[in-house]
Amino acid sequence: MAERGEFSVYQFFSNDTWEQVRSQVSAEEAMTAFQHYTTSVGARMGFTIRVIITDGEDFTNMDWQHGKGIVYPTKEDLNAPKG
Q: What is the distance between the alpha carbons of residues 43 and 24, in angstroms, rounded to a whole number?
């Protein structure tokens, strides 16, 4: 049996509904899904208004919003010194 991952992907719609599109997958699979849903026809047309990746502790790891692009992590977050 394959080991379960810790990431989930959700998409949110303009009619105030949402769906979980991946559950407990690897980081690689979560990123592939994230890229798919943020570039889908629904996202380009504004039906999909938000896509997020959460980890096993339910923290948001990536956040894309229609008309804004990736809002988290910010460029500043990615370039912040470690330690």
A: 23
Mean pLDDT by 10 residues, the chain (83 residues): 79 98 97 98 98 96 98 90 76
Query: Per the domain annotation, does 35 fall within a domain?
Result: yes
Residue 2 lies in a domain: no
In this prediction, residue 82 carries a pLDDT of 77
Contact 72, 54 (CB under 8 A): no
Three-class DSSP category at 57: coil
Total of domains in the chain: 1
**Does some domain include residue 1?**
no
Return the pLDDT at 1: 43
The predicted pLDDT at position 69 comes to 97
In a domain, residue 28? The reply is: yes
Going by the DSSP 8-state scheme, the letter that residue 74 receives in this structure is -
In angstroms, what is the C-alpha Rg of the chain?
13
